[in-house]
Amino acid sequence: MKFYKAFFTITFSLLLFSCLGFSKKDAKTNENNKITKNYTPSKETKVAYFASGCFWCVEAIFESVRGVEEAVSGYAGGQTKNPTYQSIGTGRTGHAETVAVYYNPDVVSFETLVSVFFGSHNPTTKDGQHPDYGTQYRSIAFYSTDEEKQIIEAKIDELNKSTYNNQIVTEVTKHTKFYEAEEYHQDFEKRNPNQGYVKAVSVPRLNKFKKKFPELLKKESH
């Protein structure tokens, strides 16, 4: 009996403080029960795609970076068409929680965004970022051009030598298709500051990033 009680207590705690344990009813939405970004990129805007754990955390981190116009949570890297939050949670779609980063290349470079990516998560953890584990939380740096691929691979080589002793497991994957996540996931951390996972995981991860890269932050993000 004690074993089962401990098991269910641990399981409940993991769900409470995990991205997967979220229920739509916990999200703050507008009057139509939807969250819309109302963002239109300019002609100069470029897009980069990164996956490094729960997209609530990743989106908030990139949105704090100067030169990033918008970050959108979604799914990429898999083979299933039209994935949903529920379907990728099974780990069978091949997709990972991914963030599309819309940025002004005159203000912030793709190379800097790659540094933000590697500097804001543990790239040596296979299939997850604590406390979220599963293929949907794996580390992926997507590229759209050969130049972007070279930048990512050069950064991995540098970090493997200087910091991680050849233990980086980040996938370097050509971007093909990005599926925008359900609207209630967008700007989740900003709209749900008192949600358990946000307080316990997202905000501390964002603050850790801000402390590490103060020179990259937008003024309002300091």
UniProtKB/TrEMBL annotation:
Keyword hit for Signal: yes
EC code: 1.8.4.11
Molecular-function GO term, any one: peptide-methionine (S)-S-oxide reductase activity
Signal sequence segment: 1-27
Record-linked Pfam families: PMSR (PF01625)
Span of domain Peptide methionine sulphoxide reductase MsrA: 48-198
Matches recorded under SUPFAM superfamilies: Peptide methionine sulfoxide reductase (SSF55068)
Entry coiled-coil feature ranges: none
Domain of life according to the entry: Bacteria
UniProt keywords, alphabetically: Oxidoreductase, Signal
Active site positions: C54
Known catalytic reactions: L-methionyl-[protein] + [thioredoxin]-disulfide + H2O = L-methionyl-(S)-S-oxide-[protein] + [thioredoxin]-dithiol; [thioredoxin]-disulfide + L-methionine + H2O = L-methionine (S)-S-oxide + [thioredoxin]-dithiol
HAMAP family: MsrA
Protein task: Has an important function as a repair enzyme for proteins that have been inactivated by oxidation. Catalyzes the reversible oxidation-reduction of methionine sulfoxide in proteins to methionine.
Family of this protein: Belongs to the MsrA Met sulfoxide reductase family.
PANTHER family from the UniProt entry: PEPTIDE METHIONINE SULFOXIDE REDUCTASE, PEPTIDE METHIONINE SULFOXIDE REDUCTASE MSRA 2
NCBIfam families: msrA
Protein name per its UniProtKB record: Peptide methionine sulfoxide reductase MsrA
Organism of this sequence: Polaribacter dokdonensis DSW-5
